[in-house]
Amino acid sequence: MSKVLRIGMIGCGGNGRGHLKNLVSRGEVQVVALTEPSRAMLERARQEIPALAEVPAYANHRQMIKHNELDAVGISTPHTLHFRQVMDALEAGLHVFCEKPLTTSVAETRKVIAKSRRKRKVVVVAFQRRLHAMRRFMRSFVRDKAFGRPLFVQSFCSQGWLSGTRGTWRQKLALSGGGQLNDTGAHIVDMIFWTMPARPVEVTALIDNRGTEVDIDSAISYRFADGALGNISIVGSGPRNLFWEDMTIVGSSGQALFLRNGVLYASTGTETLEFKSFGRDGDRVGHFIDVIRGRARNESPPEDFLPTIAFTQACWKSAKLGGKPVKIRY
């Protein structure tokens, strides 16, 4: 591998441009090629990021991979396209940074895991919450012996997703693979698996598509392998001017942790504490580079995405069955 990490970016939409701005600001990285089928999106990326003015662009990721010397790719495209793009990059011997969801099925995720292991290449799923100092504090707090065994978990997320994504690929099942539960909701589900010491084993879900092709509002209850209970409310029909997220975890020792839209409280059983300082958050793109360079352990590998998509698929299945319980198959 060269001293400068040569990266090709697949997708120059809003998320893609955010990652590109991050990449071009790093001295040890060079963006050497782009894939973007939309001329308008490509021109917008070049206008916002002057460093991309002379970077060659392709309408197809396979052509980009074929005609450029690359070390890695970044992927920020409609969700159902991820699997083929990830697999082609790995087959070419490239490291992969991929927006969530990594894939839209358990079967696809297993194939990515097998391919990345066989090729011995890094795959990082862009779950930024895993690198947030507050979330890391929460994980340590819940897994401390003083907290006891987690008994109950409540997660809530409200977003104006229905109105905000109307008319876009996110509400087209063939491109998104699912709705709010598989989009912003993927972050919520991932935090449950990453924070809790046990995995959910059974789920029951009621979902309303609100007249669209994909899930918008989801009411989910589930049971962990160790007997703990949980529920998730994913509200995609919320107001556009307010994003809200809560999480509550109750432990057997009488302690509890309460996240209220970015503000964290803990109850010790005798007093309630508010935590305000957690240190510096990590950066997804920087983490990807550090993992490739051997400076960090991969905090978000494809193996960790498998439980999230397995849970999500079980929710969709339960909803189709009218809310009947469904075992989660990992």
Quaternary organisation of the protein chains: single chain
| N- and C-termini, Cα separation | 35 Å
Output the number of helix runs.
Answer: 11
| Overall domain count | 2
Number of strands: 15
Q: Output the CATH class name of the largest domain.
A: Alpha Beta
Helix and strand succession? EHEHEHEHEHEHEHHHEEEEEEEHHE
Structural class: alpha/beta
- Contiguous runs where pLDDT drops below 50 for at least 5 residues: none
Major sheet details? 9 strands, mixed
* Radius of gyration from the alpha-carbon trace, in angstroms: 20 Å
Folded structure, characterized:
By secondary structure, the protein is α/β, with parallel strands linked by helices. It has two domains: 124 residues, 3-Layer(aba) Sandwich (Rossmann fold), CATH 3.40.50; 177 residues, Dihydrodipicolinate Reductase, domain 2. It is built from eleven helices and 15 strands. A nine-stranded mixed sheet has the order 14-13-12-11-7-10-9-8-15. Strands 3-2-1-4-5-6 form a six-stranded parallel sheet, with helices on both faces. The protein is globular, with a radius of gyration of 20 Å.
